[in-house]
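[job 0417] fold request received: YjbF family lipoprotein
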Amino acid sequence: MGLDDDPFDHRATQDGRVLVSRGGRLVVTVSGARAARLVAQLGRDPEADQHLLARATGNYRRGNEKRRHRP
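[job 0417] inference complete; emitting C-alpha coordinates
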Protein backbone atom coordinates (compact mmCIF):
# COMPACT_ATOMS: atom_id res chain seq x y z
CA MET A 1 0.00 0.00 0.00
CA GLY A 2 1.56 3.26 -1.12
CA LEU A 3 1.01 6.94 -0.72
CA ASP A 4 -1.44 6.98 -3.63
CA ASP A 5 -3.64 4.32 -2.03
CA ASP A 6 -3.48 5.67 1.52
CA PRO A 7 -2.38 9.33 1.46
CA PHE A 8 -1.39 11.47 4.40
CA ASP A 9 -3.52 14.44 5.38
CA HIS A 10 -2.48 17.48 7.36
CA ARG A 11 -3.95 20.42 9.20
CA ALA A 12 -2.08 23.50 10.38
CA THR A 13 -3.35 24.88 13.69
CA GLN A 14 -3.46 28.51 14.77
CA ASP A 15 -0.73 27.91 17.33
CA GLY A 16 1.72 26.81 14.61
CA ARG A 17 1.49 23.04 14.93
CA VAL A 18 0.93 20.67 12.00
CA LEU A 19 -1.26 17.63 12.67
CA VAL A 20 -0.44 14.81 10.26
CA SER A 21 -2.94 11.98 9.88
CA ARG A 22 -3.39 8.94 7.71
CA GLY A 23 -6.52 6.86 7.35
CA GLY A 24 -8.38 9.23 9.66
CA ARG A 25 -5.95 8.69 12.54
CA LEU A 26 -3.49 11.20 13.93
CA VAL A 27 0.03 9.98 13.20
CA VAL A 28 2.21 12.80 14.50
CA THR A 29 2.09 16.40 15.65
CA VAL A 30 4.91 18.57 14.36
CA SER A 31 5.63 21.80 16.22
CA GLY A 32 8.13 24.61 16.46
CA ALA A 33 10.66 25.36 13.75
CA ARG A 34 10.05 21.98 12.08
CA ALA A 35 6.36 22.82 11.68
CA ALA A 36 7.14 26.25 10.27
CA ARG A 37 9.50 24.73 7.67
CA LEU A 38 6.94 22.06 6.79
CA VAL A 39 4.12 24.56 6.29
CA ALA A 40 6.37 26.70 4.07
CA GLN A 41 7.08 23.71 1.81
CA LEU A 42 3.56 22.29 1.59
CA GLY A 43 1.03 23.20 -1.07
CA ARG A 44 3.25 23.35 -4.14
CA ASP A 45 2.73 19.82 -5.47
CA PRO A 46 0.44 17.10 -4.08
CA GLU A 47 2.98 14.33 -4.70
CA ALA A 48 5.78 16.30 -3.06
CA ASP A 49 3.44 17.07 -0.15
CA GLN A 50 2.93 13.34 0.44
CA HIS A 51 6.68 12.77 0.60
CA LEU A 52 7.17 15.71 2.97
CA LEU A 53 4.43 14.42 5.27
CA ALA A 54 5.87 10.89 5.15
CA ARG A 55 9.27 12.25 6.15
CA ALA A 56 7.70 14.25 8.97
CA THR A 57 6.18 11.06 10.39
CA GLY A 58 9.32 9.00 10.00
CA ASN A 59 7.46 6.63 7.65
CA TYR A 60 9.79 7.18 4.74
CA ARG A 61 12.01 4.61 3.10
CA ARG A 62 15.57 5.85 3.24
CA GLY A 63 16.97 3.13 0.99
CA ASN A 64 18.97 1.52 3.77
CA GLU A 65 16.44 -1.16 4.68
CA LYS A 66 17.49 -4.73 4.15
CA ARG A 67 15.81 -6.30 1.19
CA ARG A 68 14.17 -9.65 1.63
CA HIS A 69 15.82 -12.25 -0.58
CA ARG A 70 13.37 -14.64 -2.13
CA PRO A 71 14.67 -18.01 -3.30
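[job 0417] notes: The radius of gyration is 14 Å. Residues 8-57 form one domain.
[job 0417] exit 0
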